[in-house]
Amino acid sequence: MIYTLDIGNTRTKLAMFENNSLLKTEYLSTKNLQEELLFFLKKNKTKPKIILASVVHLDSELLNWLQTHTDFIQISHTTPLPVVNKYQTPHTLGIDRLVVAAGSTIVYPNTARLIIDAGTCITYDFVNTENEYLGGAISPGLQLRYKALNDYTAKLPYLQTEDINYFIGKNTNESIQSGVINGIVAEIDNIIDHYKKDYSDLTIILTGGDTVFLAKRLKNIIFANPNFLSESLNYIYQYIIENDKKNHS
């Protein structure tokens, strides 16, 4: 059993893998991560194998606990990965973006890859056929756009995502829904089209919390997988272990 941890600012996604099969996912509180992890790991008779990626700084108490009670790997910018980081400021690249770039290299080799992670922000990450990470883009996600319209105007309401089928908003709420949802879909499709002009063999992966909602609205053919980051961590764990075996053989 391999456990993957995608540690965010407030929530942590825990995924459990057996022989590359995803068995279960759970969401834990990042603030109470040690306590909640213990609940899931207490049945293990041996040290559980964990690989984690965190966008927040982990305190020493949690790291010491992991070191004592688990066999864990923490992904950092110095971790040997199957992708070359060509970002101009490599140490500012979000670990989550680096993980999906590396995962795409393992799962979809020998093609150009665009990974779109639709969460709080929408991140676009591009890897070429030489497995070089070149960069991408960051824009506001669905909820961030709704919140910004409410926060930075006097009268616009704060709305939740709805499953709409119209383009012309006939009142203020419909206009917000159309602007946010149709605007994001147009953005994603346009960016994909831009990459396709230069990379005809482009593989497109859509992941993140809004994957299912957005995938059915896009005109482009994509691989939609909301668990791609967790799966990437699982593959990276095996990649690291195999490399260690080769280096010590």
TrEMBL record:
<dbReference type="GO" id="GO:0004594">
    <property type="term" value="F:pantothenate kinase activity"/>
</dbReference>
<dbReference type="Pfam" id="PF03309">
    <property type="entry name" value="Pan_kinase"/>
</dbReference>
<keyword id="KW-0963">Cytoplasm</keyword>
<dbReference type="GO" id="GO:0015937">
    <property type="term" value="P:coenzyme A biosynthetic process"/>
</dbReference>
<feature type="binding site">
    <location>
        <begin position="94"/>
        <end position="97"/>
    </location>
    <ligand>
        <name>substrate</name>
    </ligand>
</feature>
<comment type="subunit">
    <text>Homodimer.</text>
</comment>
<feature type="binding site">
    <location>
        <position position="87"/>
    </location>
    <ligand>
        <name>substrate</name>
    </ligand>
</feature>
<feature type="binding site">
    <location>
        <position position="117"/>
    </location>
    <ligand>
        <name>K(+)</name>
    </ligand>
</feature>
<feature type="binding site">
    <location>
        <position position="172"/>
    </location>
    <ligand>
        <name>substrate</name>
    </ligand>
</feature>
<dbReference type="GO" id="GO:0046872">
    <property type="term" value="F:metal ion binding"/>
</dbReference>
<comment type="similarity">
    <text>Belongs to the type III pantothenate kinase family.</text>
</comment>
<feature type="binding site">
    <location>
        <begin position="6"/>
        <end position="13"/>
    </location>
    <ligand>
        <name>ATP</name>
    </ligand>
</feature>
<keyword id="KW-0630">Potassium</keyword>
<keyword id="KW-0547">Nucleotide-binding</keyword>
<keyword id="KW-0479">Metal-binding</keyword>
<keyword id="KW-0808">Transferase</keyword>
<keyword id="KW-0418">Kinase</keyword>
<keyword id="KW-0173">Coenzyme A biosynthesis</keyword>
<comment type="pathway">
    <text>Cofactor biosynthesis; coenzyme A biosynthesis; CoA from (R)-pantothenate: step 1/5.</text>
</comment>
<comment type="function">
    <text>Catalyzes the phosphorylation of pantothenate (Pan), the first step in CoA biosynthesis.</text>
</comment>
<dbReference type="GO" id="GO:0005524">
    <property type="term" value="F:ATP binding"/>
</dbReference>
<dbReference type="InterPro" id="IPR004619">
    <property type="entry name" value="Type_III_PanK"/>
</dbReference>
<keyword id="KW-0067">ATP-binding</keyword>
<feature type="active site" description="Proton acceptor">
    <location>
        <position position="96"/>
    </location>
</feature>
<dbReference type="InterPro" id="IPR043129">
    <property type="entry name" value="ATPase_NBD"/>
</dbReference>
<feature type="binding site">
    <location>
        <position position="120"/>
    </location>
    <ligand>
        <name>ATP</name>
    </ligand>
</feature>
<dbReference type="GO" id="GO:0005737">
    <property type="term" value="C:cytoplasm"/>
</dbReference>
<protein>
    <recommendedName>
        <fullName>Type III pantothenate kinase</fullName>
        <ecNumber>2.7.1.33</ecNumber>
    </recommendedName>
</protein>
